[in-house]
Every structure is written in C-alpha cells, then in structure tokens.
Amino acid sequence: MTEPVIEIEGLYKTYDSGFSALKDIHLCIPKGEIFALLGPNGAGKTTLINTICGIVNPTSGTIRVNGYDVVREFRKAREQIGLVPQEVTVEPFAKVFATVKFSRGVFGKARDDAHVERVLKDLSLWDKRDNITREVSGGMKRRVMIAKALAHEPQVLFLDEPTAGVDVELRRSMWNVVRRLREQGVTIVLTTHYLEEAEQMADRIGVIQDGAIALVEQKTALMDKLGQKRLSVRLADPLSHVPEALAGYDLTLEDAGRTLVYTYSAHNETSNIRPLFADLEAAGIDYVDIDTKQSSLEEIFVDLVGDKS
Question: pTM score, two decimals?
C-alpha cells in the first residue's frame, strides 16, 4: 500500500445514551484511492465519515488525515477534507459561482477565480454560474455541493450517498468526474446504496456492520473470493430430475426441467466444468445453449450482511 492519507486506529464512538455507534475501527486509505464504504442503514457509515471530518467527537482512538490528528490539529486536518453530505443544503438566494467562491474563502484560501471556473467546468456547471441556486435542478444542486467541497483543493473528498435522487445519465457523468479527481491524486471515500456505483468505481471496498468493519478487500479480490458463477445449460429435452451420474455436481433444474444450472465458486472450482460436460455427454444428455453469469457485488453484499440488512 502506498502512503496512507487516512489512518484510523482503535476508533470508538459511544453516545451518552450508551449506544455504541463505532467499535474498534482500524482503517488505512492510501493517496489516490477510491474507497467504497458499504453497509445497511444504521451500520455506522455516516457516523464514521462525520467523525473523520471532525463533526462528531470520537470517544477514543486516533484519526489522522494527511498526517494531521483530527482532534489535536483540527483546523489543519479539516483543510485536507472536502465533504459532500447526504442532505442537499445550498444557499438558496446566492449565485452558483458566488456560492463556490465563498466556500473557498471559508477555508482561508486566497481568491482564485480560475480554480473555481475549472471546478465548475469539470462538473458541467459553468453555464449555470450566474443562476440562483434555488433555480437549478436537484441533480445540479448536488453538483454545486461537490463544487463547494472541491473549492479549497482538498486532498480527500468524502461523498456520502452522492448520487441519491440523481438520474442515471447524471450519475454516470459524476462517476467520470470522480475518476478524474482520482487521476489528480485526490483520495475519494464513497458511501452508496447503489452497489453498481461501488462495482464500477471503487479500488477497495469496506463493509461496516453494527458499527464495526466486517472486512476490507480489493474489489476484484472480494468478487473472486466470495463471488459465485452460475453456468446454465439449456437442454435439448427436458429432464424430470438430475441423473444419478451427475450427483457429484451442485446441479439444479429450472424452467420445467429445460435448464440445468451448475453453481460454483469463481475462485477455485472452474476445473470441474470440463468433467461436467464430459459426464453430460456420457449420460446421453444433449444441450442447445450455455450461458455463464458471475455474482454481482450486490449479490455478494446481500450474502455478507444477511438478514441484518
């Protein structure tokens, strides 16, 4: 792993009521990574982000952002961070350009209208620069929030459900913006309920459940390790049952016996496919078509969290 930008060690957050929102979180996120944080509602995703950003005080543990402790060096740490919260909150009577420009000033950055212009153009907001924010669409308001978060040139960008309520076309456009930011060295931490988003964009995926990190994996490694492949064999003639000669395989019949389905691990069981077809031929079973499908990240995630989601 390259040099970490976010370092979390032994993080706990317990509220006065006794509710334990975060439990012994240990996490390192390197520079330039897109890290997707997944978990069911109430798992602790937003609490973790707000604690890193200094909005929520930790009960114990340490958090460093670009080397700065978020408690002891709050101002320096916060300067490293751009935050786009779930809630759409923009100044309703300010113009788009002025809103983003003001956000830069809040962090004590020198005026740089050229940078504000670049951010607005990257987010396809330049032609809306003189619009009052309340006049733009909901999707555009969310883009304005991202522009505000980028105005002070942060090293880390937190996107908490960034495309909630955004149409598919706009969502994919925003993915491209995020990828360009990563190319510029910005570290992205993303929470999302759109698992397609994590599957398309993330380098690594962390799953948080009941306030604790359940796992952190490279996206491809996670899918290889936990993903299932499904081989569907369309039969020339339907079967009433799986023949005894094929009992050694994990086979089921579907579509009134017209499709034989073999489910296997994508990680280490592909060697069984060739013997399966040899045994089909030996059993005199003809087929007319085959199809394979690998588990999506959504299916893997549902398996991981089970009924707790």
Answer: 0.78
